[in-house]
Write a structure and sequence with these properties.
By secondary structure, this protein is of the alpha/beta class. The chain folds into two domains: 193 residues, Rossmann fold; 53 residues. Helices cover 46% and strands 13% of the residues. The chain has a seven-stranded mixed β-sheet. The radius of gyration is 24 Å and the shape is globular. About 3% of the residues have low confidence.
């Protein structure tokens, strides 16, 4: 066989190998819980991806939610110590720090564990709303491990004929195996009952027995033993949030200057919230020539 034929054959073999590699399932690396304290559940691969740098705000920067903060930290601390703890639903006004509070509480408890000389860490796993159907598979993966896990779903809600809420109900405490002792479920939502009011009213109006029409879906929120409600903040609370950020990042500005700007900023957005306060602070810092980081 001459050199040209050999080169042609090698080229065809390389193409064939490339095609085979494309159709073969991707090799999934072994999960090591020592790599990080936070993970992202990738349902399509049945894999927990380590998140070594978590995008979060320090707990003391979450102003105006003191009572809620204390309840969540207390529940998380109990769970981290192996004591009884509740699943938690953080619901209410957008931009008020629901998901930030979950991540901050997780970090705070791990700092407490470190300072007390504990050798273990509390693990946080985020699961996307669209992957709720895979929750039983995730629980099977972690239920027999020595670590303790907070499974966190941000912006959880259900619409229309979505039946994936049944997987969540079963996983929380209704399945034959029940919720594993080393797992709690934290979720945030704009809806207290996780389904929109117009959907609830429509089911009541069209059902033979209106009192039972939405019972199954509404009962989902009952699986969360701790409900923490977030409401729109007052002007004073909003300004306190801005002041907290300015103080934390040592921004050189006078109160009479930033206060007027911050109020105008909230008016243009038609809302006062922790998120709006943070967005104004970023604008202010940029104009002052600063770069902000959450930590």
């Amino acid at each position: 066989m001459d050199k040209n034929n050999i080169n042609s054959l090698n080229h065809k073999l390389d193409k064939l190998i490339s095609l085979i590699e494309r159709v073969l399932p991707e090799e999934i690396p072994e999960i090591s819980f020592n790599d990080a304290d936070a993970f992202l559940w990738q349902a399509e691969r049945s894999f927990l991806k380590p998140v070594k740098v978590v995008n979060r705000v320090a707990l003391d920067l979450l102003v105006g939610v003191d009572h809620i903060r204390d309840q969540l930290v207390k529940n998380t601390r109990q769970f981290s110590m192996g004591y009884a703890a509740n699943n938690v639903l953080l619901w209410g006004a957008r931009g008020m720090g629901k998901s930030s509070l979950v991540k901050a509480a997780h970090e705070t408890i791990n700092e407490e564990l470190l300072q007390s000389g504990k050798t273990y860490r509390l693990k946080l796993i985020e699961i996307h709303r669209e992957d709720i159907d895979s929750l039983p598979e995730l629980l099977a993966l972690i239920s027999n491990l020595e670590h303790r896990f907070i499974i966190f779903c941000d912006d959880l809600s259900f619409d229309g004929d979505d039946a994936s809420y049944k997987s969540l109900k079963s996983a929380l405490d209704g399945g034959i195996e029940g919720r594993p002792n080393n797992v709690v479920f934290y979720a945030t939502s704009n809806r207290r009952h996780l389904i929109p009011r117009d959907m609830m009213e429509n089911e009541k109006a069209t059902a033979i027995n209106p009192s039972e029409a939405t019972e199954e879906k509404v009962s989902l929120s009952d699986r969360f033993g701790l409900w923490l409600g977030f409401h729109k903040c007052s002007q004073e609370e909003y300004l306190a949030m801005v002041a907290g950020y300015i103080h934390h990042y040592n921004l050189d500005t006078k109160m009479e200057e930033w206060k007027k700007e911050a109020l105008e900023w909230s008016i243009t957005r038609g809302n006062r919230s922790g998120r709006v306060a943070w967005q104004y602070t970023q604008d202010l810092a940029g104009r002052l020539g600063h770069n902000l980081n959450f930590k």
